[in-house]
Design goal:
Length: 411
Amino acid sequence: RNYSEILSMLPSVSSYFLADLSLIWQSYSALILNIPMRHELQLFIGAAPLLLAFVSIFLQNPKQQMAYITIGGALLFAILCTLKFGQEFSFWQYFSKLPLLSSLRAISRIILVLLFPIAYLCAITIQCLEEKKSWFSSASILIVMVAVLVECVTAGTYVALPKNEWRSRLVNAELKLPNPIPADAIFFFAQKAGAPHIDELDAMWVSMAHSKPTLNGYSGNFPPGYQFDFGMDCMELPRRVMAYLSFTKQMENAKYQEFMHRVLPIGFENCQDNWWYSRPKVTVSSKPYSAESFKDLSIRFVKRAEVGSRWEVDVEIRNNGSETISGISNSNNPISLSYRFLDQTGAPMGNWDPRKPLLADVPAHGVLRFHFDIPKSASSPKFVEFALVQEGVFWNFDLGVTPKRVAWVNL
């Protein structure tokens, strides 16, 4: 993992007091500002457990002293090693370079590990109160039980969708399957406009229910050639098959045909019959392109069409250079189209966050017609700007290329 990716998931001191979904603590939690990946950093364990763990410092007996020192020291060490100080610094920057540890991304989930030693410290306090056998200790235990129960009952958790809505989605996904399903079928579901990761999870669940493999998937890891948001564009099917065959070094046409005849595309548009027999013109690059080659790419807006809750957009990417630009990158530096909207004054309404990876090659001295979706939003933009990025290397405007601006409201 690149440290810049890890950085946003490192907890700060403030993270350990975040509880946005607690009815008791949410008003105090709201006072904590400027927390990136806030939904991933809700680490407050509750006032009652914190109090019990703190009181245990003064209550350990000699028999527990070594265990207390070991567990308490490990707890403190783990927190300090993963804590972010200020905006940038953390000791984890050095640990993240070690084998195995370098693969960890969501360091904030260390709270799941910390709960075990915290529970031990809480147990020391409870055990000490039980041994006192007085009205004060009994009353204290009762108060702690009520406090823990109230904090748990009034705390919510983040969920992607309500359970009944998700079950309804799965039923609808099942209805799209053919009957009968071929024995060697590989499922591949298109995405609806909105939340691609939800569609990917639906596809995984339905495939698992039928004991079938799938080309869909969602994880914190993106393999080479993986496009997160592909909508209903069927071009993603041969691209994904070729990316897999390239990764497994089986790029011969016989393997491609064998794989494609097993894949069952569900909900896609514009699938071409010849794709099942011959690969689209998509090559694989093994290294980033130079600034000179990247500057040879330009964008021309073609058209847009309103379809339900999304816009279908067509642009042309022209290559004025003598080097073909590949549609797939094995060096994790794919070239993507990005866009952002601007208001009436020309001020950006967002960042260059959306990514639309190229779906095929841009031939030397040629043009690639590029089709993609843009979800509708509640805002009313005046303009839209398009730019190209070679992921992890540079944007074309970094090289002096002006983003392509189009008047959006008058189209």
